[in-house]
Amino acid sequence: MRALLSPEPPSISYLTPTRTTKRRSIFHWKIQTSLRFSAGNGNCSIRPRSMCLNVKSALDSATIDQLGLPESEIRNPSVSPSYRSWKLPKPNQTVLDAQARVCTGPTQTKPLGEEQALKVLDTILRSAKGELKDQEEVSKAQLGAFFAGMTIRANAFPEATQWSDGERRAMNKFWPLLVRVLPPDVLFIADPEGSIMGIGGSAGPHYVGNGPSEMRLVGALREVLAGGHLGYEEVQGVLRDVLPLKLEDKKSAGVSESLLSAFLIGQRMNRETDRELKAYCLAFDDELGSQPVADVRSLTHYGEPYDGNTRYFRSTLFVAAVRSCYSESCLLHGVEWMPPKGGITEEQMLKFMGANTQLSPLQAKKLLEDDEVGFAYLSQREAQPSLHSIIGLREHIKKRPPLATSEKVQQLVRAQGREAIIAGFFHEGYEEPLLMLMRRRGVHSGLVVKGEEGALSMTTKLRSVNASKGLPVNYCSGFRSLSATSALELDGVSRENFNIVINAKDYGFEPTDTPRTDRSVSRNIELGLAALRGEKGPAYDRIVLNAGIADHLLGCDGAEDIFSALDRAREAIDSGKALDRLLNYIKISHKMK
To answer: Which biological process, per GO, is one annotated for this protein (predicted)?
Structure first.
């Protein structure tokens, strides 16, 4: 680690881009976009042109069905919000805004004022009575999350984040009316032991649910609503019982959405224990059978936040293409669109560029082993369909559930050689749980990064004097094994732990502002491909920085010296190899069988 802690002035050599292989364009656009990919004289160029797309974004789902419009005609695939499925019902915004305040942790919760509380409860009442005409109805998932938040605050939170006087007055006014119209499962969530509301207090203590799966969920939820915690087997049992969540005609099959949303947000509000988080992380490892094992000497699993970036350049897809050039195979995983941010994801970029995003784990294994590719992307939709089934419900929960942490630490394909996991985080306190999950996975090396927006992309930007308190951007923490033995077999002596804040200037990078993308998928792609084409600038520097630092911190072969690691990443770009890898991926992904 001395190379990082005591950097010397870098010796950087830039290679002149050379391309010797002619390539035909392999991008086949169904619509006109803001990017044009062309091949001439062996070079891949990017030429902007005006957008010629008519987006029918104002149409509601009923109108779309009536007109028979295909989904491709109502999307603008160059921006991330368009990847949200129009089939998902939207939440009620009034209640969602309240959930953002009351469905969070013991110190972060912000009690509602009386005016807002009255408005929220009135909205819930009118929705339950079918009288809410001017906005979306309050969904079952929203009812479960909101009342779970209120119950846990009343039962277990410190005085400062318990109910405000205004909330109490509002509830005293509306609860006698709500108790007449809310379904039994919501009445249970709102007052599970009959000790909070007074009126109608007998419903909660006697509620058991419908069917074995729901009865098990109710039993676990009683403990959660009291501020308690569950065992590893209990959490896994609940998750496997109730998922996948099948939605047909807005009705769930097998379990109440109110109960499930209360369970998910309740566990996060109580701050999950290590055993609870491990249960979420490992629950669906074998959903499709045993994970395939790739014949590669080194494999890094990338755990980007599934809900994407909304402001800044997201570099990981391009970093993977770079690292694959020198046999550091990379497996990315995620979703097309995920709340609450609904930002740019790797799946959106690959889909926009024409890649196959419906690969199975076995097909991803073959791409990892392919000498012309060396990296792969797996969608949660294909690899863990049970977890993917609750994306819509997660939007109605509003706040991130425990899955937002555990889904970043997955091994959807294994390797015969060394394995590492990298995950991004934002909120201080989650770096150690993430590293705990990585150690539980048995990987040789693990790394958590506080990149921009809580993603993995470290920046070359200097830290502002007005930066928020807590861990700074570019903070890294992790471990790496000093032997080839699996981390599960180590006694702790053979593992090196570290934490460090990366100052890019120390390694020869000029400070630059991070390129803004502002939810533009096409802009993110344009920046990334221009960098892989050898165009120097902020995007190029970030790709090099993130590739070289990862290689060094994970203990990869040939990266013992940080400056050598950075030069190797530059050579992969400037030689044209990294761009070739990305283009090969798009082409070969469609040949997978």
So the answer is: GMP biosynthetic process
Q: Name the amino acid, one letter, at 423.
A: A
420: CB partners within 8 A, 6+ apart: 298, 299, 300, 301, 443, 444, 445, 446, 447, 480, 554
Write out pLDDT tens, residues 552-593: 999 999 999 999 999 999 999 999 999 999 999 999 999 987
Beta strands in 219-311 (DSSP E): 246-248, 251-253, 293-294, 298-303
Residue 423's H or E segment, with its range, is strand 418-424
Where are the alpha helices (H) located in 271-335, listed in sequence order? 274-282, 316-324
On whether the CB atoms of residues 184 and 207 are closer than 8 A, the answer is yes
Cα torsion angle, 521, 522, 525, 531, sign: negative
What is the rounded average pLDDT of the residues 416-432? 95
What is the reported pLDDT for 468? 65
Q: Could you list the residue range(s) of the whole structural domain that residue 119 is in? A: 93-271
Assess whether 576 and 517 both reside in one domain. yes
Same domain, yes or no: 406 and 463: yes
Q: Residue 113 is encoded by which pair of tokens?
A: 């004022």
In the predicted structure, residue 378 carries a pLDDT above the cut 90 = yes
Domains held by the chain: number: 2
| pLDDT tens-digit map of 329-349 | 999 999 999 999 999 999 999
Structural domain ending residue among the three candidates 271, 306, 331: 271
- CA-based R_g, the chain, Å: 25
pLDDT given for residue 13 in this prediction: 29
Looking at the structure, tell me whether residues 228 and 311 fall in a common domain: no
Q: What is the pLDDT of residues 521-553, one digit of tens each?
A: 999 999 999 999 999 999 999 999 999 999 999
On whether the CB atoms of residues 575 and 18 are closer than 8 A, the answer is yes
User: Global pTM?
Assistant: 0.87
SS3 99: helix
**CB-based burial label for 527 (10 Å; 0-12, 13-18, 19+):** buried
In a domain, 532, yes or no: yes
* Among 271, 301, 331, residue at a domain's last position: 271
Residue 577 is assigned to a structural domain of this protein: yes
Is residue 62, in this structure, part of any structural domain at all? no
